Amino acid sequence: MDDKTRRELYRVMVLSRTYEEAILREYHADKKPAFDIGAGLVPGEMHLSAGQEPAAAGVCAHLRRDDAVTATHRPHHIAIAHGVDLDRMTAEIFGRETGLGRGRGGHMHLFDPQTHFSCSGIVAEGLPPATGQAFAFQRKGSGRVAVAFTGEGAANQGAFHESLNLAALWKLPVVFVIEDNEWAISVPREASTAIGSNADRAAAYGIPGHRIEDNDVEAVYTAAGDAVVRARAGEGPTLIEVHTVRLWGHFEGDAQGYRPDLADVPGRDPIPAYEARLTEAGILNAGLATSIKDEAVARVEKAIDFAKSSPVPAPQTALDYVFA
Amino acid sequence: MSVTESATAPAEPAVRRLTTARAMVEGIAQEMERDAGIVVLGEDVAKYGGIFGSTAGLLDKFGPRRVIDTPISETAFIGLGIGAAVEGMRPIVELMFVDFFGVCMDQIYNHMAKIHFESGGNVRVPMVLMTATGGGYSDAEQHSQCLWGTFAHLPGMKVVVPSNPADAKGLMISAIRDDNPVVYMFHKGIMGLPWMAKNARSVAPVPEEPYETPIGKASVAREGRDATVVTVSLSVHHALDVADQMSAEHGVELEVIDLRSLVPLDREAVLTSVAKTGRLLVVDEDYRSFGLSGEIAATVAETDPGMLRVPVRRVAVPDVPIPYAHSLESAVLPTRERITAAARELVGA
Amino acid sequence: MTDVRFPQLSAEQPDAEGVLATWFVGDGDQVASGQLLGEVMVEKVSGEVLAPATGRVRLLVAEDRTARQGEVIARVE
After folding, report:
1. Which of C20, C22, C25 to mutate to test the interface with B (most CBs of B within 10 A)?
2. pTM of full prediction above 0.90
């Protein structure tokens, strides 16, 4: 991996984390003194991706704008890594008319046709449409691929198994990426999954399966590179499982009383660890890290300002866009 | 041949009649000829031609790249249809029996139906989900349901229910050309299959050229002044049979409205007819409560209940799973006997 | 005058009986060669009856009646 690529992975992760920190701030700012989920400028559920940046950055580095990505209820890091317009994404999270979905979808239902990005709030159900996008790409002979992100809990859902079988059977150009953040809300993987690694499930469908440990963005990058090349070459799907960490709650407002390792969690933050690694390799220094962070903050605050100054959808338009 | 015979003009060919199944297939085939982006996916749709004949002959015409047998993975292949549609194709996906919606409904109602709205209109899902409905041939609880009330209830998908061959072709072509997801529900009893008892109107004239039957517009299958019968699918034929008999035996003229579409629903057609007759009977092979028949009654009640000279009557399947034994099944389906009894009560005959 | 015969759907039982399931044309209708006239069933297999010639068709077996494979079921005059 060259230095430029490694620095770029770092930059994407910093941008993503900066974004989530800003959304965290905005989300809670007007829900005081006691948490009221429906209150404030960003109401509803909020699922933030702090800690999971390596999966998004390492995979999306190999994708072009016309490759498709489907994500889950925890989509921000993936959307950012794939190049979704930050202003319109933020406006959508704030429920504004200028949002990706004109405020109709919100944070779990981000659709960006420009980058063929979509997400869904139903666990595992983003996989079947991703296989459909791959099917269309295969027809066109375009070399384009689809990537479907999901969680380790979702790997027990029927849609996961049906999608892997169908994609393998028809050799669809799709890569399935599981973010194993160890927790399906409050249920740890060992309590839900009969086997030790979801990557082993790939064998059941006759496709390659890789498990990446230690939330290692460069190992993700390498495995994803192989998978994307394989898919573009018409050789079919791959399953990648990234053992990552969920630094915050499942949703904002989650006290995480069920989580015994809570004290250890901040120490598992992948970004300071990668910063240290790149610094040691002479690719990064304090000054450069600061300027990357400052740029990220500026970009994110601009997006937040854009969202806050955008109009709220008019109630009279509530019935629009049901049908084309 | 004599001189006089040779001067006779050649006879006109008889108008061309098809079964509903063949008419549907013709609609699909003509569109597939026109648009290479149309593919057909489902269980047993290729060599078998669909277990109810909905895709018969398409494999021979268009080959295995466009007429595709899927594994038994409804969630996966319906979802695949969604993704393909999002990327510009126009898939026709078959759900073999509507009763199977339970295993794949998330993709249907939470994805296929909602993506356009969630994206603020920026993403389109131009797909057709076709599915077989209906009972009357002892296929019991899990293979005899209609369920259009369930689909029509959930926003974001159009629902069409043809009753006859000409509408079957026209609605299929309209459904394919529509940029929205359209659920196309065909009753097995109208298909004109050689292996199932069929009513006479399952074979009827069908224009040869491609044409669209408008989605969202009911048709007046029979005009009458004494009572309005609003219905859909196979029940249209039972209603017409009852109407003929009541005209002959009692001099009562029933008006029969074939809704053809449930979403969008042609409420105007219902109101216009009831305003004229003052009496409303809804015949619906779906379950009675919380469905289509209640929706039709509500449409009248919330517009002008004064239109009605007598209360609304409904003949539907009475909130019970559809039994296997023939004697029991025919007691719960909306048979001609039940329709006749209700119509007679309605008009006081 | 051309005979229209019930198609041979079962090779193992050439004399098997089947049903005239559907007529798409009426007795006396003008038909074209190759036109779909009807549909038949032998046990579980269905088959098509096509017009062997152009002319006026005379139906000899009513719908839902049984007939044997090879039996003359209609004529085109």
Report:
1. C22
2. yes
Range of the domain at C62: 2-76
In sign, the C-alpha dihedral spanning B275, B279, B284, B287 is positive
Angle between helices A53-60 and A270-280 (to 10 degrees): 60
C22: tokens are 């559907």
Q: Does A323 touch chain B (CB under 8 A)?
A: yes
Q: How far is CA A213 from CA A47, A165, A179, A216, A218, in A?
A: 23, 25, 11, 7, 11
Least CB–CB distance from B203: residue in C19, C24, C44: C24
The number of folded domains in chain C is 1
pLDDT band at A33 (very low <50, low <70, confident <90, very high): confident
CATH number at residue C7: 2.40.50.100
Taking CB atoms and an 8 Å cutoff, what residues of chain A touch B107? Answer: 125, 128-129, 159
Structure confidence at residue B4 (pLDDT): 46
Read off the tokens for C34: 């190759």
pLDDT value at position B12?
Answer: 65
CB contact under 8 A, B180 and A323: yes
How many C-beta neighbours within 10 Å does residue A108 have?
A: 20
Contacts of B214 (CB under 8 A, 6+ apart): B174
ipTM of this predicted complex?
Answer: 0.92
* Contact across the interface for C46 and B195, Cβ inside 8 Å: yes
Give the residue numbers of B annotated as catalytic, written as ranges.
Answer: 143
For residue B266, give how far its alpha carbon lies from the nearest alpha carbon of chain C (Å): 32
Per the CB < 8 A criterion, the answer to whether B253 and B284 are in contact is no
Q: If you count residue pairs, one on A and one on B, with CB atoms under 8 Å apart, how many are there?
A: 141
Look up the CATH number of the domain holding residue A130.
Answer: 3.40.50.970
* Model confidence pLDDT, tens digit, residues A191-250: 999 999 999 999 999 999 999 999 999 999 999 999 999 999 999 999 999 999 999 999
Total number of domains in chain A = 1
The answer to whether the CB of C64 falls within 8 A of the CB of C20 is yes
Write the pLDDT tens digit of every residue in B170-194: 999 999 999 999 999 999 999 999 9
In eight-state DSSP terms, residue C1 is: -
Cα–Cα distance between A197 and A119 in angstroms, integer? 25
Question: All domains of chain B, ordered by start, with CATH?
Answer: 17-205 (3.40.50.970), 219-347 (3.40.50.920)
What mean pLDDT value characterizes chain B?
A: 95
